[in-house]
């Protein structure tokens, strides 16, 4: 008997897209979630616990970063090789096509620079954060994916996935500072406190903790199956484990594991709200984000997104 | 879809070097569900053994190690003796939840045009009686670089996985229709 059969993995009908309100969005914490399979951007009001807009972003976007000061959200669409700039309300601003495999993105706020990794050509494009014009390229190892700029503005780091290494550059003059060996196939990379770089190594199911100044591998932390992102809040680290459908939680001082929390299916992009009270993680298969209360380490809410949310990068903004 | 049609649907002609670690930029997802006039326990009895996929018409034989323990392995031979193979590993298994998760560790893209493939099979009760299988797959296309040939693009990957799931669910539907 054949009663129900659902085939997903196809584009959402256009009728499901939201229309943007003309009025500006409220203040508070918002998430800008790239939905790779439905090719759009979900704007979530985290305080209200709902999606307030969904805007088309062609080309299966994954990478994202943003700047409240600039009123800018930048997205990376690998299928159309496009980096696009939008306003925080989701209005299209400008774009550039980059021949190669653009995937990860990070912003150097102080120097008006965007960094975009080229998965296929072992390099980073350096773009103007204002008009997206190409300014320089930096050489990385094979298959650079995640990028991060250190909070103090000193360093830019790429996770060179197929080279099992990080490339660290000086953010000021864009010179190569060092390359650091990490675990197997680092994909996402994040700066923690004390100038430490945390890479999520999907091939060895571990986090590598590297000192940015010296390049020394300080420790390796076993986490869950296929770690895809790292975020920090209230002295704890949170790792999204894509195949385990969990977050691993560890203590930032001792670097010891504390617990593992169930979230949605295929959790990926992860970040902390501005007050450090909530961790937000995008569940790629479930088409939701989970909001985790940091104090109690429990999932306190879920919000629906478009199809295939990735939120690969900095996707949370405290709007004024 | 019979066995020959299924194998035809998943076979593609292009040879590629082994690039098991690499993949394209956009992960794809497929979910198929099928309801059955049977209890969840009856359905799980048929599908809930990682070492026995004889319920799928494309599977000729299965050999493996580790039973239903985490990290158990199996090698599926498709079609007939000496046919193409798919090697898989179990990474979640729960009799209680009637669900298991596995990933492909080795398959030629000419057999199944995907890379980095993982899947879950779950049996759930249906309101008002009956059971439902949900079969979910997540994978990248077979061609890891930009501008894939049509037989190794995203659409080809989705079509092939959908065909495999459909054939398996159709066979189960026929099996339980006799209940």
3D structure, described in words:
The complex is a heterodimer of chains A (320) and B (179). Chain A has 320 residues and is mainly beta. Helix content of chain A is 0%, strand content 54%. Chain A has one domain: Methylamine Dehydrogenase, Chain H (7 Propeller), CATH 2.130.10.10. Chain A is built from no helices and 29 strands. In chain A, the strands form seven sheets. Chain A has a five-stranded mixed β-sheet, with no helix packed on it. Chain A has a four-stranded antiparallel β-sheet with strand order 3-2-1-29, with no helix packed on it. In chain A, a hairpin with a 4-residue loop joins β2 (40-45) and β3 (50-56). Chain A is globular. Chain A starts with 27 loop residues before the first strand and ends with a strand. Chain B has one domain: Alpha-D-Glucose-1,6-Bisphosphate, Chain A, domain 4, CATH 3.30.530. Chain B has three helices and seven strands; from the N terminus they run αβαββββββα. Chain B has helices at residues 3-10, 40-47, 154-177; strands at residues 28-36, 59-65, 73-78, 85-94, 99-106, 114-125, 131-141. In chain B, strands 1-7-6-5-4-3-2 form a seven-stranded antiparallel β-sheet, covered by helices on one side. In chain B, β2 and β3 form a beta hairpin. Chain B starts with a helix and ends with a helix. The interface between A and B is medium-sized, with 33 and 32 residues.
């Amino acid at each position: 008997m054949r009663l129900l059969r659902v085939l997903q993995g196809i584009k959402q009908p256009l009728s499901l897209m939201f229309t943007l309100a003309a009025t500006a969005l409220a203040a508070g914490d918002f998430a800008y979630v790239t939905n790779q399979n439905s090719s759009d951007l979900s704007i979530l009001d985290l305080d209200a616990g709902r999606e307030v807009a969904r805007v088309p972003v062609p080309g299966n976007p994954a990478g994202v970063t943003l700047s409240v000061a600039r009123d800018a959200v930048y997205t990376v669409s690998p299928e159309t090789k496009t980096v696009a700039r939008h306003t925080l309300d989701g209005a299209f601003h400008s774009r550039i096509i980059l021949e190669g495999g653009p995937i990860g993105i990070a912003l150097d706020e102080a120097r008006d620079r965007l960094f975009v990794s080229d998965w296929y050509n072992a390099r980073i494009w350096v773009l103007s954060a204002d008009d997206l014009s190409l300014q320089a390229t930096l050489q990385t190892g094979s298959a650079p994916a995640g990028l991060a700029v250190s909070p103090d503005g000193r360093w830019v780091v790429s996770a060179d996935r197929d080279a099992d290494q990080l490339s660290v550059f000086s953010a000021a003059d864009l010179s190569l500072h060092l390359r650091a060996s990490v675990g197997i196939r680092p994909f996402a990379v994040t700066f923690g406190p004390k100038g430490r770089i945390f890479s999520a190594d999907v091939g060895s199911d571990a986090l590598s903790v590297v000192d940015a100044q010296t390049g020394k591998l300080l420790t390796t932390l076993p986490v869950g199956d296929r770690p895809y992102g790292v975020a920090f809040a209230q002295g704890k680290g949170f790792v999204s484990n894509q195949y385990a459908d969990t977050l691993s939680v560890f203590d930032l001082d001792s670097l010891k594991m504390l617990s593992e929390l169930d979230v949605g299916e295929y959790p990926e992009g992860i970040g902390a709200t501005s007050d450090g009270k909530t961790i937000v993680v995008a569940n790629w298969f479930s088409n939701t984000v989970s909001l985790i209360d940091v104090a109690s380490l429990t999932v306190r809410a879920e919000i629906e997104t478009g199809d295939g949310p990735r939120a690969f990068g900095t996707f949370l903004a405290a709007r004024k | 879809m019979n066995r020959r049609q299924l194998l035809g649907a998943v076979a593609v002609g292009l040879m590629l070097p082994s690039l098991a670690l690499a993949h394209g930029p956009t992960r794809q997802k497929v979910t198929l569900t099928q309801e059955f006039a049977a209890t969840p326990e009856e359905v799980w009895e048929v599908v809930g053994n990682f070492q026995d996929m004889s319920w799928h018409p494309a599977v000729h034989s299965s050999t493996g190690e580790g039973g239903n323990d985490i990290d158990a392995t199996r090698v599926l031979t498709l079609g007939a003796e000496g046919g193409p193979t798919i090697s898989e590993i179990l990474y979640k298994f729960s009799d209680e939840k009637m669900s298991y998760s596995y990933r492909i560790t080795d398959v030629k893209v000419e057999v199944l045009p995907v890379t980095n493939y993982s899947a879950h099979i779950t049996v759930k009760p249906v309101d008002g009686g009956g059971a439902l299988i949900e079969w979910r797959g997540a994978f990248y296309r077979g061609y890891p670089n930009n501008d894939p040939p049509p037989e190794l693009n995203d659409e080809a990957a989705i079509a092939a996985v959908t065909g495999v799931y459909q054939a398996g669910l159709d066979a189960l539907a026929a099996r339980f229709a006799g209940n």
